[in-house]
Amino acid sequence: MATRRSKALLIVGALILVLVAAGVGFLAGRSTTDGGPAGVAEQAQRYHCPMHPTYISDEPGECPICGMDFVLIEEEEGAEKVEGIPGLAAVKISARKQQLIGVRKGRVERKDLTKVIRTVGIVEPDETRIYDVTTKISGWIEKLYVDATGEFVKQGQPLLTIYSPEVVATQRDYLLALKARDRLTRSRFPEVSNAGESLADAARERLELWDIPQSEIEKIRRTGKTMKTVTLRAPSTGYVLAKNVFEGMRVTAGGGGSGMGAGSTGAMGGMASTSAAGVSGSRGLYRVADLSRVWVQADVYEYELPLVEVGQLATLTVESYPNETFSGKVSYLYPYMETRTRTMKARFEFSNPGVKLKPGMYANVELKVPLGEKLAVPEEAVLDSGTRQVVFRVLEDGYFQPRDVKLGMKVDDSYEVIAGLAEGDEIVVSGNFMIDSESRLKAALSGMGEAMPAGHQH
């Protein structure tokens, strides 16, 4: 009985030894397959979508979002030996992969930058060269020499003649005063002699205050005859923008014809006295504009205001003369903003040879503002999220480091660099979108930790 029990114990012990040996062999096989020292070559591989790098798979295939083939995540490119910025990570990318994604490099350079400001405006007459022709006397239009709007007139050219009984009466008073002066100056009494001189001077002064030219007054004195009409002449060379008078119409002092309101200022006589006024709203007899120089009213955006100053040179082009450029300058900046458009009006002055620039034309205005020598990077090197700008800096051994940068003015295809980069730094100017995706993937994986469930992760 004891012998039979001993044999049974020996058999059970042998079975246990066999099972233990089998278990050790099984575990050794698992360690080789699952990444133990002997199984490094068969380590589990992971894949991700190039366009959606946070979508992870442990098997090759296609991305269910965009249909692109999964790309193997190369473990040697995942080592983060360089510190990144929040939300991004420095990444290492092999030369082969750089070629595949089209990485192109450049350098941060210091160069002269010139900001070009372009705007659109409307051509207007120069307000300082617009003249309202009115009269200081009342009377009737005897004759019109310029009887159509748009006519070209030269300075001093007759515009019309006015018959004024009041002016005729004053001329007679002047002639009588001259005769009385000649008689009274021969008096033995100084008071009488001086009174005659005063009468003549008073009559002459009334004619002068009505802007009767000195030449006409001298003619009256010399001939001893009165003039029936008074001639109004063009105050400046230019074009007639408005005509509010007709032959036979009665005109009033300080205004135009009957039923017309008072003009800007009075004018009368051989050379009409005038004042600058706007194009619209003329209530004088004529409105004449000298168009040899014109204004352009244009809008300047709010962010461009620090770059615009009075006196800056400007160039202008119009569709009518595409191959011709007009030179001018900024003459005035209005002291208020347009609340709806967030723009400010700027006034430009341009010479107008040949009167090619017509009031009402649309004009393209360009200002070139030198900014001096600045650090600059190509526009395509900047990834702008709206809240921050990132540029990838090239380091040694294939590493790319994201850098937060502070940018200044955009000039053509470059940005001024205020902070974040130094002169000579090598940067990525093409393919940075793919590097940015890879950087975000590394940062996401780093935050997720080592544990990664099998299957697709998103």
The oligomeric status of these chains comes to single chain
Number of helices: 6
Topology order in helix (H) and strand (E) letters = HEEEEHEEEEEEHHHEEEEEEEEEEEEEEH
Strand order of the largest sheet: 6-15-18-17-16-19
Shape type: rod-shaped
Helical content band: 10-25%
Q: What is the averaged pLDDT score?
A: 79
Radius of gyration: 46 Å
Summed up, the domain count is 4
Proportion of residues in extended strands:
25-35%
- The structural class is alpha+beta
Largest sheet: number of strands, sense, barrel closure: 6 strands, antiparallel, barrel
- Distance, first to last CA: 68 Å
Number of strands: 24
Low-pLDDT segments: 17-43, 75-82, 259-281, 449-458
Can you put this structure into words, describing what you see?
With 458 residues, the protein is α+β, with helices and mostly antiparallel strands. The protein has four domains: 2-42; 44-92 and 431-458, no CATH class; 119-125 and 291-371, Elongation Factor Tu (Ef-tu), domain 3; 134-279, no CATH class. Helices cover 23% and strands 34% of the residues. The protein has six helices and 24 strands. A six-stranded antiparallel barrel has the order 6-15-18-17-16-19. 27% of the residues are buried.
